[in-house]
Write a structure and sequence with these properties.
One of its GO terms (molecular function) is DNA binding. This protein is an alpha/beta fold. It folds into two domains: about 5-140, Response regulator (Rossmann fold); about 145-225, Arc Repressor Mutant, subunit A (Orthogonal Bundle), CATH 1.10.10. The protein contains twelve helices and six strands. It has helices at about 10-25, 40-45, 65-75, 90-95, 110-120, 130-140, 150-155, 160-170, 175-180, 185-200, 205-215, 215-225, and strands at about 5-10, 30, 50-55, 80-85, 100-105, 125. It has a six-stranded parallel beta sheet with strand order 2-1-3-4-5-6, with helices on both faces. The protein starts with a strand and ends with a helix.
Length: about 230
Amino acid sequence: MGVRLMVVDDHRLLAEALASALKLRGHRVLAAAAPAAGAADLVIARAPEVCLLGTAAPAEPGIFDPVVKIKRERPQVAVLVLGPVPSPRGIAAAFAAGASGYVRHDERIEGVERAIMKARAGEAAVAPQLLQGAFGELLNPAAQPDDEAQRLLEMLTPREVEVLVRVADGEDTRRIAAGMGIAPSTARTHVQRVLMKLGVGSRLEAAALAARTGLLDRAGSLRDASAD
């Protein structure tokens, strides 16, 4: 039985070509293209079983915000990110946002279909070589340049920096919310955005990255300076 799905990408020719190929294989394609800004709303309105969501820059901060919105409003929709060869951190960010998998733009249609079926079944759908690259990065992280902490700090808002410091201190969502005077749902959203911006898949990875790059020391200095 075919899958009820959507192909959402701002490159219309790519989206329509993939949609046509999937229709020929018996799937029900609800939409073929949409601008990136409206992608999440379109998916939420149509509520497919699986959505193939195109992206051109998997390492860009906030690029997976549509995935977060879709999963918040329609948690039953499995989202497969469709994009170029990603960095290991890009894959981690996609999964942190709630994606069910990552499919390369140059994947054969058989591979795309396998990923769709896995996603519908609730399984992670990502090529083994991409997973190997992600594991390699986590086990043997590349040396960070001296200004890496500053670059990361510039990606985060002051509130997100505070959230990261609290995460590194081992605070859970409830304690973060209480300490910052915000709702637990808001604290959870802040944590998720921090993970996405840092390109990591867990709080532990975020804390390790912050400690390794000296970001925590830099953030502490900034906080002390603002308090004076």
